[in-house]
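Figure 2 data, in text form.
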Amino acid sequence: AEAAAEQLRLYRRDPDGWRDCRSTGEVAVSWRPSAEFAGNLYKGEGILPASPQNVWECIKPVAGGLRTKWDQNVKDFEVIEAISDTVSICRTTTPSACMRIISPREFVDVVVMKQYEDGTMLSAATNVEHPLCPPQPNFVRGFNYPCGCFCIPVPG
């Protein structure tokens, strides 16, 4: 979990190589080739007219949280094992897509949540196997490289 958090911090600090992909008035998405796997990294950025704490309540990875209510790509989120107050093993499921051509997925990750001195909040995750969460029937087991969300306070 700590390695995933550090990898996300490195991505955030390294501005090189990001290319604009799409943007609206609210969100900008960019990408760059990954140095870890054969594919791309994607980054979405936006400013919301809300306090960082309210935004964090919507995105933080906790069982019973708000993410399953607004994010159509997250069907369920459960904590398999709480390692500490800030680290847990979690299972996230996604619905099928494209008229069920794409099967539902499940991801088992170790997740860490952090808050930094400047008020930035982070959730970082990466794939892990856990004996209490074997692959489930009717789901394809997905694999996450280091991934997560930053919630960064903006002055004003």
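Caption note: The chain has one domain: 1-151.
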